[in-house]
């Protein structure tokens, strides 16, 4: 049973100040091997949820299981090991500005696959960069010498370096023009297809991209899950907020 669930969240509560709850008793199963989009208005706790899945934030109460492991029962070294199975791509590419493209992608390998050595790190990095459509002539450039789209590709290649089982994207297309948005959506789609069995979790304010990309959509509201289901289930929903989102789309606010 738990084999089919990549992330299991039970009664998750998070308050930063002890008064207001950003997450207020959230229950959620993110299916393994699929693309799940998490949508909701700005400030509904999407990024806070992702940070709990990564073990960066600690819950006020409740449980988070990632790949069958209860995060709160894990030691720091175990948590670090588990994190190597999670690839993260944040809204801003967050590349190291003073490292070349190649050095950026080698970085996680150097940290977690130390025994392989430089030659193999570079081979793996070159393969990952190839998978996201980066040509080798760019490998020795600095991020400042690349276009926004290329920086996204490098960030994704770095997230893929350790062959993660779960890929998490936080607003991967926010602030991008429509053409680049489509490129990044395709990149997410193809990356998922090319990594058999991998689980992708995409936080997005773009409902229509969520429909295009994902098998499963989770809509957050008031610190919990308003609706989780397929595109079809969203279209059939009689929930007023869901219907409003469907007619207007989700404006980023
Ligand atoms: N480290 C923090 N300390 C205090 N409040 C925070 C922190 N991180 C997020 N919040 C608050 O939690 C709420 C949800 O934030 P977030 O998850 O970033 O929203 P979004 O859905 O837009 O990603 C916001 O009100 C935000 O101000
Ligand atoms: Mg956010």
Structural commentary:
- The chain has one domain (2-248): P-loop containing nucleotide triphosphate hydrolases (Rossmann fold), CATH 3.40.50.300.
- The chain is 37% helix and 23% strand.
- The protein has 9 helices and 10 strands.
- α3 runs parallel beside α5.
- The radius of gyration is 18 Å and the shape is globular.
- The model has no long low-confidence stretch (mean pLDDT 91).
Can you give me a brief rundown of this structure?
With 253 residues, the chain is α/β, with parallel strands linked by helices. The chain has helices at residues 46-53, 76-83, 101-112, 118-131, 148-160, 178-194, 207-213, 231-236, 240-248; strands at 5-14, 23-31, 35-39, 61-66, 69-70, 86-89, 166-170, 199-204, 216-221, 224-229. Helix 3 (101-112) crosses helix 4 (118-131), helix 3 (101-112) packs parallel to helix 5 and helix 4 packs across helix 5.
End-to-end C-alpha gap: 38 Å
- Looking at CATH, the homologous superfamily is P-loop containing nucleotide triphosphate hydrolases
| DSSP strand tally | 10
Main beta sheet strand tally, sense and closure: 6 strands, mixed
* CATH-derived topology: Rossmann fold
Number of helical elements: 9
Task: Name the bound molecules.
Answer: adenosine-5'-diphosphate, magnesium ion
Q: What structural class do you assign from the helix and strand content? A: alpha/beta
Taking strands numbered 1, 2, ... along the chain, how are they ordered across the largest sheet? 6-7-8-3-9-10
Shape: globular
Number of domains: 1
Strand percentage:
15-25%
Order of helices and strands: EEEHEEHEHHHEHEHEEHH
Helix content: 25-40%
């Amino acid at each position: 049973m738990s084999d089919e669930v990549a992330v299991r969240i039970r009664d998750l509560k998070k308050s930063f100040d002890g008064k207001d709850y950003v997450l207020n008793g959230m229950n959620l199963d993110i299916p393994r091997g699929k693309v799940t989009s998490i949508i909701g208005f700005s400030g509904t706790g999407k990024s806070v949820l992702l940070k709990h899945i990564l073990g960066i934030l600690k819950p006020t109460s409740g449980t988070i299981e990632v790949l069958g492991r209860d995060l709160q029962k894990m030691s720091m070294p175990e948590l670090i090991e588990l994190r190597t199975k999670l690839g993260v791509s944040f809204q801003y590419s967050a590349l190291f500005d003073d490292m070349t493209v190649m050095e950026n992608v080698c970085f996680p390998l150097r940290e977690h696959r130390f025994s392989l050595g430089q030659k193999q790190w570079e081979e793996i990095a070159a393969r990952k960069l190839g998978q996201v459509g980066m040509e080798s002539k760019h490998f020795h450039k600095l991020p400042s010498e690349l276009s926004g789209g290329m920086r996204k590709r490098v960030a994704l290649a770095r997230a893929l370096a350790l062959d993660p089982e779960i890929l998490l994207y936080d607003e991967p297309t926010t602030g991008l023009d429509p053409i680049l948005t489509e490129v990044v959506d395709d990149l997410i789609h193809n990356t998922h297809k090319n990594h058999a069995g991998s689980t992708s979790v995409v936080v997005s304010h773009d409902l229509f991209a969520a429909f295009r990309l994902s098998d499963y959509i989770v809509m957050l509201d008031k610190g919990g899950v308003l609706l989780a289901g397929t595109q079809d289930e969203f279209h059939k929903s009689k929930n007023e907020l869901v219907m409003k989102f469907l007619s207007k789309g989700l404006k980023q606010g």
